[in-house]
Amino acid sequence: MLHVGLADLGKADEAVGAWQGLCEFAQRVGANGVLVEPLWRRAADATQGEDPQDGHGDAAPADADTSTTRLGGQAMPTLLADMARTAREYGLALVVEVALDRAARHATAATALPEWLAQPVDEPARDPRQPPTAGQVLTLRAGAVPPAFLQAWHARLASWLDAGVAGFCFDAPQRLPAADWRHLLGGLRGHAAPLLAYAWTHGLAPEHLAGLRGAGFDGVFSSLPWWNFQDDWLLHEAHRLRAVAPLIAPVGVSRGTPHADRRMLWAAALAGDGMLLPARTLLPPREIAAAVSCQRQRPPAGTLYIVGGPPGGATALLRRAGTPLAIADTADLLLINPDAQAPAQVAPGLLAGVLPPGALHIADEAGTPADLPDSLPPGACLRLAVGAPQPVVSTAYTAMRRQAPQRLAIESVAPAVDDGAFPAKTITYRPLAVSADLIFDGHDTLAGEVRWRALDEDTWQVASLVPLGNDRWAASLTPRRVGRHEFAIAAWRDTWASFTYELRKKHEAGVASGLELLDGAALLRAAAARAGKRQPAEAVRTVKAALHALGDLPSPASQGERLAAADLPAATAERVATLLDPALAQAMRLVDDRAFEAVTPAYPLWVDRPQAEFASWYELFPRSQSSEPGRHGTFADVARRLPALREMGFDVLYFPPIHPIGLSHRKGRNNSLIAAPGDVGSPYAIGSAEGGHDAIHGELGNLQDFLALLRDARTHGMDVALDFAIQCSPDHPWLAEHPDWFTRRADGSIRHAENPPKKYEDIVNVAFYAETGKRARQASLWEALRDVVLFWVAHGVRVFRVDNPHTKPLPFWAWLIDSVQDAHPDVLFLSEAFTRPRMMLRLAKVGFTQSYTYFTWRHGKQEIIDYLRELSQPPMADTYRPNFFVNTPDINPYFLQGSGRAGFLIRAALAATTSGLWGMYSGFELCEAAPVPGKEEYLDSEKYEIRQRDWDQPGNLNAQIARLNLIRRQNPALQSHRGFHVAECANPDLLCFWKATPCHGNIVLGVISLDPHRVQQGEMALPRWLAGKGPAGIVAEDLLADGTETWWHDWHGVTLTPDAPYRLWRLTAAAP
């Protein structure tokens, strides 16, 4: 919509022409409506020289039924009918701003009755700094709104609708309760539907916005014009506003320069579901129209991100077209330099957790590829877009073969899992450091590069190696596609660089001779002679020009001959300078013959979507989600919980098995061997007459109900993870159809699942290999299990939690995961293997994306530190991604059984801040911990019965969990298991640490009490290197209390209580 003020309309004799011109302008820029300020007579009309548009006038009506004297003082319906008629001629809807919460002190009786308004008891002397209209406006009385007030406004606005007005924008909407808004708007929609109703909400407090939910508005307005292009309050406000209605981003008045106007225009295009355009701007109409088109073509659903870099850095405003988990997603990206005076650096890697996989290109130029720039000019903004991704689809890959010994050795390649036997793992858009030792005899200078590509690409991309010291070299690559990749390292002796290194040293020492000139000329002649079509023509010309500049030199000595010293040319400064010219060095690199080149075999690399490394999981039993006591829950009941779960910040919703449950040997409550009538059994006893692993338990719903839930979850930005449990009840159809898939004991009975001394009478296991002969694999069983996964993948499931994979053969998992991911590389697998550490690591190597961990049993400070260091550093970090679940249906941690509410806060904070992946089983947020005496098991376990809960009961952790997840989304340092560093603190009950992105563009400092019962105090060491040398301080932004302070010392004191057992700060260097 175009925003039009009274000043834009001019005076009465100019208004008609001005209005037509404004409508024409709105049509040119692609607007679909015009929002005009209140046109009624105001108190300011009676004040000589007071202009309602000069920033001091108020929109309060003195006569709401008569237009302002500037527009001729005519009846409002008459004026609005003329304006609406003109607007419709240009295809525009006329929307009128209304301020019904206040009126001029001497307003007409038809406008406001005195009893509706709060009357001042006495009138203080007017502040001379205030305009003459100050004190002339009265606001609506507090309390219940009089019915006559709503009736009067309904009649007035209905008459305006009859005149052709399409809708209204209500000022100060918080002055009326949501129920009154519903009454008023419902009546107006009954009078003339459709009606457009907007709420002027910029700057409203969170509690006022919460009061407008369900009021019936079609749109609300953000505070974008007041954004400084840095702070993330805009994101918080957008989250609150969208809970009320779709968000409209005002561009605001011109900021005085095209640069400033352009930044705000495109920020509005990305930040809003609609735009409010100014009538006056310094930008050309075609650019405004482009912004409107960009906003309009984007789907209304989508996720907004604001990612800021270090001080002096650029800000990224990202709007994804779909949900954060969609692989087939596109995005609009706006890089903004908030500083109009200085360039801004674009920190690499900051967007890795939020940028969807796909080709980056210049906005509106899909065929023009682009990279993120290193910096932005002062006050500039840059529009980029991420196109539809092209996942890497491959059928096989070959492990690296050992290379034959060569003169130049390439060793200790990293990342290389088991020397390339398994792929290292990364995610799209995260810069990956590849390094190796390059070893060569003598003192020659070396050169090298990393060559990398997706497996379905023919062309290698190249990144030059740079020396790190001690023969270690490194390069960085940034994959953008999901799936299999490979990289190789090539290195060679740089003949020209070796020659010029020695020449420079000799020249500086004054011992260079004509012999060095002859050696250099010989190298140049050789380069020119081998130059062919593959060498750049410009480089060849540079080489030949250098030869010419050296002048006439003696021919090289023949075999067995030697030039006399008198025949050697003079090593003049000019000739030496020619040979040491940087441009010549660059040319010789391009035509180098790469002597003794060594190339490693290709190392495998697996690239996942960001959710493989950054996600918050929530586990629930669908059958317990009914709000009616005793009723079996359904998928529809789960759908009703989605808004609350997304409000807490979860983006993966995980279900235990949803398949039919067997009747034979069904378990009763609390794992009883005898089930009573009505007992629901364990969902892990899969299979009955209703079907097996590709069927759905009838009381949950059917396949269509599940698919509807899947769609609803993705609408809320959540993925659904299914439990892939390879176990069967004795009633599973496979037992009758494929008896050879199961192991029988000596007495002919089927072997039940066992974990001695435990025996699971309701479960039987399949046999992956034949028991006789050559122990061949059961190919038909393997294929059937793979087909189960592919069945759910075909229906949209992209995440699987695998039950006890360590009890199934490793070759089976390698085969199954490869088979699935060859065609669907975006599928993720979570390993639930609480077993020996090396087995857990091996499961990650063969393909599991994530893994449960021993986090649940790490309580002491040093054991937590040791475990986090192990997980966050190579070699573990290259392939093993930990998912820190704070509890599970199987594990009721001893720590939580006696910790009270504080213990739950402590474990949530530990999990959420030290790993990019964390999860919880429902009930954790209610601090449930009643155990089976002496065991880490829940009393009245939900595995064997339906448990219904009051999710809003007092003492819940909903707000704290939501805050932790919000902080995670806003800080890339917390979006990975990497980057963990310990901050020294003498108190053994305080864990102090900081996490950082590789470039240190984002640093989060945390301190967590490990004692849920007592107050803990301590001094923690600060990362003083962040402030650099000198007296500069560290700016600490409190991520929980929303405050900022500057720390100047090496240590900082902290006090934690059981009610507030953790603190988090975002650190940046203070401005010098």
UniProtKB/TrEMBL annotation:
It catalyses: alpha-maltose 1-phosphate + [(1->4)-alpha-D-glucosyl](n) = [(1->4)-alpha-D-glucosyl](n+2) + phosphate. Residues 619-968 form the Glycosyl hydrolase family 13 catalytic domain. One of its GO terms (biological process) is alpha-glucan biosynthetic process. SUPFAM superfamilies: (Trans)glycosidases (SSF51445). Pfam families: GLGE_C, GlgE_dom_N_S. CDD domains: AmyAc_GlgE_like. The keyword Transcription regulation does not apply. The keyword Isomerase does not apply. Residues 45-71 are annotated as: Disordered. It is an enzyme of class 2 (transferase). Keywords: Carbohydrate metabolism, Glycosidase, Glycosyltransferase, Hydrolase, Transferase. The active site is at D803 (nucleophile), E832 (proton donor). Alpha-maltose 1-phosphate binds at K667, Q727, D762, N804, K943, Y944. Residues 58-69 have a biased composition (Low complexity). Its EC number is 2.4.99.16. It comes from the Bacteria. InterPro entries: GH, GH13_cat_dom, GlgE, GLGE_C, GlgE_dom_N/S, Glyco_hydro_b, Ig-like_fold. The record marks D890 as: Transition state stabilizer. GO terms for molecular function: hexosyltransferase activity; hydrolase activity, hydrolyzing O-glycosyl compounds. Belongs to the glycosyl hydrolase 13 family. GlgE subfamily. Homodimer. Maltosyltransferase that uses maltose 1-phosphate (M1P) as the sugar donor to elongate linear or branched alpha-(1->4)-glucans. Is involved in a branched alpha-glucan biosynthetic pathway from trehalose, together with TreS, Mak and GlgB. This is Alpha-1,4-glucan:maltose-1-phosphate maltosyltransferase. It comes from Orrella dioscoreae.
